[in-house]
Amino acid sequence: MRILLVDDDPLQLKWLEEIFLNRDYSVFSAGDGREAFEIYQTSGPFDAVVTDFQMPKMDGVELIEAIRKIYPTQHCVLQTSERAVLIPGVPQLHKPYGLRQLLRALRLPVQPLLF
């Protein structure tokens, strides 16, 4: 499984990376939306894109919209600590969230990835 993780908070990004790298997933990560979009253009599509909402340069909603112009069915998950942002077909996680919530949003089975 290939996942693109996007967050400007290094601790959140590290937590997400550890979840998937420890289980041999192919993980790409970016610290802002523009960097993530560049990665997507060269390496996409992905099985899932997990992006923060509030970021410099390009926020998560703008990133999802740009990605979906290229690949309209890309599965994306929006994480936020700010407010509810509704995008049709995009699960939203409110920080802080747990591993089970993340796996459900990604449509992954919970049991195989539990510690």
Word description of this protein:
With 115 residues, the protein is of the alpha/beta class. Strands 2-1-3-4-5 form a five-stranded parallel beta sheet, sandwiched between helices. The protein has helices at residues 10-21, 33-43, 60-70, 99-105, and strands at residues 2-6, 26-30, 48-52, 76-80, 92-94. It is globular, with a radius of gyration of 13 Å. The protein contains four helices and five strands; from the N terminus they run E-H-E-H-E-H-E-E-H. Mean pLDDT is 88; it is low at 110-115. 29% of the residues are buried. Helix 2 runs parallel beside helix 3 (60-70). The longest helix is centred in the N-terminal third of the chain and has 12 residues, at 10-21. Helix content is 36%, strand content 20%.
Please state the structural category. Answer: alpha/beta
Q: Return residue spans where pLDDT drops below 50 for at least 5 consecutive residues.
A: 110-115
Number of strands: 5
Q: What's the average pLDDT?
A: 88
* 3D shape: globular
Task: Name its key features.
single chain, 115 residues, alpha/beta, 5-stranded parallel β-sheet, disordered C terminus
Question: How would you briefly describe this protein structure?
Answer:
This protein has helices at 10-21, 33-43, 60-70, 99-105, and strands spanning 2-6, 26-30, 48-52, 76-80, 92-94.
